[in-house]
Specification:
The chain has 718 residues and is an alpha+beta fold. The chain is 54% helix and 13% strand. It contains 27 helices and 18 strands. The protein has a 5-stranded mixed β-barrel. The chain has a 5-stranded antiparallel sheet with strand order 11-10-9-17-18. Helix 4 packs antiparallel against helix 5, helix 17 runs antiparallel to helix 20 and helix 18 packs antiparallel against helix 19.
């Protein structure tokens, strides 16, 4: 019977094995054919693997030695050279070389911007050169200074730059001037959550070693000097003229579109623009560069074509491209040359350079070349939302317009006469709609990850506002800048102001729709990484295997809610606490608004204010501290003094003290967990997650950030 059974099953097994071999062979052939079809697009993955090397650097828990970072590139280059003719080993070794180059670029950038960081809060007389200054909506000044001296601090310990707020009435600062004032400076602040935004890291790569505020009005010691300062002064004068001539909120928005100064825009206007999905117009990036330099290119080319015979004898298109590059450079300088603007300038210059070289101006190759340049120049851009969102939008749009259906539709025969005008109008509307959908979808996940917000009606906001921005606002801004030296900019600024008014009306209307601005809970970094890799696979390839990118894209979105939220949150100064109640919401121990409370609620996707989140029937507070009690959950005490700690140790399962607790009291405490001020002084913001049996799992900002130079052990707290 056994032999018969074997004889019965063996042919079936052989057929199954043969089918598997055929399927594997067909799959292998398909992969080879897809790889051969997309072999010319391997270049596009260079910045992706460079970004992997940069991400590896920022993911390390320690600062790698300089010599160790310089070792991998030559080794990887040697392997790449040896494997250059091998079909599989060649691309893999080149990918590893790109990873090594990205790692080295990040290390070199770290050493290039390294500067002293203030170790503890200090007060004293500050003398420094004013680098930049902006006036906020409230009339205060926000400035970056290069200190010459500060109190008794030695020159070796002096930060290269400090960010200072001057809230004194009548205070004035001129870029380039040397000033003296009395100030309070502190180290750049830590994250308010272990995995929250790290301002100290961002400050390190901007060479900002301290932040603070002024006690006294600045006294000018020396007047502005230098060509660079003249540009800064010109920028300020342009912004002030636009704010004055246009007036009101529209003037502040118009100035922001040209000079990049957003501090004077009211918070409610920013909130409306954000809810309507058009806040991106305030960040001078690719959109502004395209509209500004593109309008200049079109205007110059149209003017030259009108001159009799000139266009027939000379390459006026290239002349216009050269003028557009100069115009884009001027726009870069007067806009403050922020990182996003520098990135947009590189991209637009590469595209106009392609016109000069008779190459396609808008192509995926040019975009990825721009990404490579930026990652080599400023590797820290990779971890910023601005870099991620702008390149995600551009890559998605180019992939969309390169697709076969869109190319067939765009290359269809054109009508003539009235039908042509109607066709162009419909094409323009469809273009705005498709661009908004594609760009909004590409940037939506990234925006939700960094800002915990989704603009539900972003398509409607962009459909209504972007024609105003593209047809009225930016062309009039260009015309106003051209006429401003002659004092003839009044009419152009008036029209620009009306265009901005229209944009703000759209923002206000869309923001008023129910559910326009929706908060979403924070996602793990793995969700963003997996989703982005899937999107890159989907957009950078052309063959059908690109659709495999939908799988990691879906997995990344599925990971969005995979992190267990913490049960207790303590801020970096042990001054504010929050506990998660049985209904899943956070309850704060203090109703006062603060940056920590705002960020905690935003990361939760919670639209409540701090005052609303502090109204909980399960938390009782008095001058001695707060006590959380809820059926079925551990009792948690937040103690304000030693006497309260001693009392709370007998009635609470967990004690969080905002004061140092002596060892004797700690040893006698019967609570399951006791954390005191010294713990937070050493470790910064802390979260505690409770297992079903009540076992606490502690995560601290210090643990997550690692032993990096921008992480201060004492955290700058007293």
């Amino acid at each position: 019977m056994a032999i018969a059974a074997d004889g019965h099953w063996r042919p079936a097994l052989l057929r199954l094995a043969g089918g598997i071999r055929e399927a594997l062979g067909a799959c292998t052939s398909w992969l080879r054919a897809s790889y051969a079809a997309d072999n010319d697009r391997l270049f596009l993955w260079i910045p992706v693997f460079m970004g992997a090397g940069i991400a590896l650097y920022f993911g390390l828990g320690f600062e790698p030695p300089f010599w160790a970072a310089l070792l991998p590139p030559p080794v990887a280059a040697w392997f790449a050279w040896r494997a250059r003719h091998r079909p599989l080993a060649g691309p893999i070794s080149m990918a590893l070389l790109c990873v090594a180059v990205g790692l080295v670029a990040a290390v070199l950038r770290f050493h290039a911007v390294a500067a002293p960081v203030l170790e503890r809060p200090m007060s004293g007389d500050l003398v420094g050169h004013v680098l930049t200054v902006e006036r906020t909506e409230t009339g205060a000044l926000s400035a970056v200074l290069a200190p010459v001296s500060f109190g008794k601090l030695s020159s070796e310990s002096l930060p290269a730059k400090v960010r200072l707020n001057v809230r004194l009435r009548g205070a004035a600062l001129r870029p380039g001037a040397e000033v003296r004032l009395r100030a309070r400076l502190m180290p750049p602040p830590e994250p308010v959550l272990p995995n929250g935004f790290d301002f100290a890291r961002q400050a390190w790569f901007s060479s900002i070693g301290a932040v603070g505020f002024a006690y006294t009005a600045p006294e000018e010691v020396a007047p502005p000097s230098g060509a660079g300062q003249l540009l800064t002064v010109l920028r300020m004068k342009i912004g002030e003229r636009m704010r004055t001539r246009i007036g009101g909120t529209s003037g502040a928005v118009a100035a922001a579109l040209v000079t990049g100064e957003r501090a004077s825009i009211p918070d409610e206007i920013s909130a409306d623009l954000r809810a309507a999905g058009i806040y991106h117009v305030l960040s001078i990036s690719g959109l502004h560069m395209v509209l500004f330099a593109g309008s200049l290119f079109w205007a110059v080319r149209a003017f030259l074509v009108l001159l009799p015979g000139l266009a027939l004898r000379y390459p006026v298109k290239k002349w216009a491209a050269a003028v557009a590059i100069l115009g884009a450079t001027f726009y870069l300088l007067i806009s403050g040359a922020a990182v996003a603007t520098q990135r947009a300038w590189i991209m637009i210059c590469l595209m106009f350079l392609a016109v000069l070289l008779d190459r396609p101006a808008l192509s995926m190759r040019n975009v990825m070349l721009a990404a490579t340049v930026i990652l080599l120049w400023r590797p820290e851009s990779l971890i910023g939302a601005s870099f991620q969102m702008s390149f995600a939008a551009v890559i998605a749009l180019i992939a969309f317009y390169e697709s076969e259906p869109v190319r067939r539709w765009s290359s269809r025969p054109r009508a003539a006469g009235l039908e042509a005008a109607a066709s162009r109008g419909i094409a323009y509307i469809l273009g705005i709609a498709s661009t908004s959908i594609v760009a909004g979808t590409a940037t939506g996940v990234i925006a939700a990850f960094h800002f915990n917000r989704i603009a539900i009606y972003g398509l409607a906001g962009n459909m209504a506002a972007m024609p105003i921005v593209g047809i009225v606002v930016m062309p009039m801004a260009l015309l106003a800048l051209l006429l401003m030296p002659f004092g003839l900019d009044g009419p152009a600024l008036w029209v620009m102001g009306k265009g901005v008014d229209g944009m703000l009306i759209v923002a206000r209307e869309v923001a008023a729709w129910q559910g326009a601005d929706r908060l979403v809970p924070a996602a793990p970094l793995s969700a963003l990484v997996v989703a982005v890799l899937g999107a890159l696979w989907l957009t950078l390839w052309r063959a059908n295997w690109r659709y495999a990118g939908l799988v990691p894209l879906a997995v990344g979105l599925g990971l969005w809610g995979s992190v267990t939220p913490p049960d207790i949150l303590i801020d970096r100064d042990a001054a504010l606490f929050a506990v998660r109640t049985a209904d899943g919401n956070l309850a704060l121990t203090a109703p006062r608004p603060s940056y920590a409370a705002e960020q905690w609620l935003r990361y939760e996707g919670d639209a409540r204010t701090a005052r609303e989140a502090a109204r909980s029937e399960f938390i009782d507070c008095d001058p001695e501290g707060c006590l959380y009690r809820e059926d079925g959950r551990p009792a948690i005490a937040f103690s304000s003094n030693i006497a309260a700690v001693v009392e709370d140790c007998d009635k609470a399962d967990i004690v969080i003290a905002r004061v140092p607790v002596p060892r004797r009291i700690r040893n006698e405490c019967s609570a399951r967990l006791l954390l005191d001020y010294f713990f937070f002084w050493r470790n910064g913001a802390t979260t505690v997650t409770l297992a079903p049996d009540g076992t606490p799992h502690i995560v601290t900002a210090r643990e997550v950030r690692g032993a990096r130079p921008w992480v201060q052990r004492s955290s700058g707290r007293q």
